[in-house]
Write a structure and sequence with these properties.
The complex is a heterodimer. Chain A has three helices and seven strands; from the N terminus they run ββαβααββββ. Chain B is an alpha+beta fold. Chain B has one domain: BB2672 (60s Ribosomal Protein L30, Chain: A). Chain B is built from three helices and seven strands, in the order ββαβααββββ. The chains are: A alpha+beta, B alpha+beta.
Amino acid sequence: MKASMRAKIRKITTFVEETVTEMEQGVDPPTRRAAAVAVIENPYAGQYVQDLSELMAIGEDLGELLTQRAVAALGIAGPSAESYGKAAAVGENGEIEHAAAILHPKLGTPVRRVLGKGAALIPSSKKRGGPGLALDIPLGHKDAAFVRSHFDGMEVRISDAPRANEIMVAIAVTDSGRPLPRVGGLTKDQIKGEDGLR
Amino acid sequence: MPEVQIRKRLLLVEEIFHEGGPVADKPLRRAAALAVIGNPYAGRYVEKIEGFMDDLKPLGLEMARSLVTALDGDPSVVEGYGKGAIIGSAGELEHGALWHVPGGYGMREVLGGAKAIVASTKKVGGPGTRLDIPITHINASYVRSHFDAMEVGIADAPRADEILLALVMTTGARIHARVGGLKASEVKGEDGLR
C-alpha cells in the first residue's frame, strides 16, 4: 500500500466468486467477479461537518487501491475487466452523505485509470448500518451501461464491519456478465463505446 | 460413485492491519475457500454415504492449494486452519460430516504434516446462512493466540439440494492477541495439542 494513503484502514477483504454451473448448465468460460472492500475510520463520525473534502480525498486513494486489488484477485489486466460497481456502508455514527463523499466526487477517475477505460457511469449503492450488514454492489458494463447481459449485483459482507465509527468501501470488478444471459438487449459485441451508454 | 458437481466457488481474503490498537508490522491475513456442490443424497435417506469422501478429496486438495496461493503461495506462512460445511435443507447434518476427511486431508497434504486436529463446524441451512468457522493453530490446538473464527456465507447458497464446503487458513495470531496461554513459540509439536 502507498505510504501516501489518506484512509486509516483497519482491514481489507477481497472476494472472488466463480460460477461454473447454473441449473445444471455448464458455464463456459465460468463467470468471475471480484470485490475488494476496505474498512476505514470515518473522520467525521459523531459530528456534523459541512466540508467533506477529506472523505473525497480518501475516495480517490481507495478508488485506486481497491480496483488494483480486485483486478489482482481476478488475475487479469485492468483493460480485460468487463463490468464494475461501487458501494459504501457507513457505521451508525456517520451520515449517508459520508458515503456519497467517498463514492462520487473523486473515486471514479483512478478506477478508470486502472481499468484503462470505463466510459460508463459506475453504478453505486450506499446505506447505513451495523456490523455484518449485507452490501449489494450494483454491476454494469464499464464501457456501455446498456449492455443487458452485464446488469448484475454482488453481495458482500464482513461480520465485524462497519463499526459505529467506520465506513466500508467496496469496488467490484468482473471479467464477465451473468452466468446464462438470455433476456436479449444490447450485447457486448455490439458496443459502439462512444457515449458510455451503448 | 456420485460425481462432484461444483456450481460455484468463492475465495475470500482478509488483510487485517489493526483493531483499534497499534498497527501491526505484518498484517494478519485470513483466507477462506468455499465451494458450492450438488448434494448427491438430497431429498432421501441414504444409508451408505462414505464413498463420497474419496470423491471429495481432489476438491479438498484444490481448495487447500487455492488458499495457499491466496496467502502468497508459500505453505510456511500458514499458522492456523479450520473447516466447515453448510448443508442445504434437503440434506442432513451427516452429509456435512463427509467433509471432515477430504477437507482435512487436503490441508495437511498442502501444508506438509500439520499435527493438530482441524477445528470444524457444520449446520443445515438455507441460502445466505452464515457459518462461523473455528480456527486453531496447525500444530498445537492449545495455542491461545491462534484461537479465532471466520464468518463465511454466500447469498445464494446452499440451495436445498446443495452443500457449501469451506476451508480456512490464517497467517498468525489474532491481531492484538494478549490473553496469555500457550504461545506459538512454545509449541513442542509432538501430540498436536501443545
